[in-house]
Amino acid sequence: MTDRLQLFVRLATLAAADETHTDLAGRLCAAGRSILGADGAAITVENISSNRTTLSTTDGVMATLEDLQDVTGEGPCLDAFRHSTHFVLALNDRPGGRWPEFARSAWQAVGDLTMYSFPMRPGGKIFGVISVYLSNGRELPEPIDTAQFVANAVGAALLGDPTAAEGFGTDSPWASRAQVHQACGMVAAQLRLPPDDGLAILRAHAYAYNLTLAETARQVVDRELDFREDS
Prior knowledge:
Layout: H1 2-17, H2 24-36, E1 40-45, E2 53-57, H3 60-72, H4 76-83, E3 87-91, H5 100-110, E4 113-120, E5 128-134, H6 144-159, H7 178-191, H8 195-208, H9 213-221, H10 227-230
Antiparallel strand pairs: 1-2, 1-5, 3-4, 4-5
């Protein structure tokens, strides 16, 4: 219990001392990366819906990994949320296994590294996922149960984030997937498809044209892209 208390105090201290990020998710993401000894980290919520939201990433590598999971519809973060347990993926020149398309695309984009995804489940209820990566052949220096405790603590802190109540306000970090949700509805209406199929169309287009899901959604919402013309 003392070790967990010390971890929580360290998490809170690092987050409070962070002058780089103005939002709570950004401060907690950076603090979690530091405590776990990782090279980068990301926090995501609503991971198996069209509202999947990346609240924060610490660097471009982590942002790329999250974007590719959006586009391919597979990856350790999505399954950590779906199955409420941690997953590990080593990216190398032999992609395959559980997430072959994500692993291939991710390795081509960022090279060799190991990615860990932990569900944030304060109180036992899944809230989101914190993912980290380590490069240069390094493995997570902390035990898995320690990393899981940190993930749960981050989730507990985020549940009290006042910006969560702001929904999809334009100034909130929780707004990043509002446009994807809107675009799914527009594509579904254009092609007379169920909303989930609208998301599949967005993902396929993003993959085919090497775009992020967010950029494809923006094109649809801004009416730069209309799938009725393609059909």
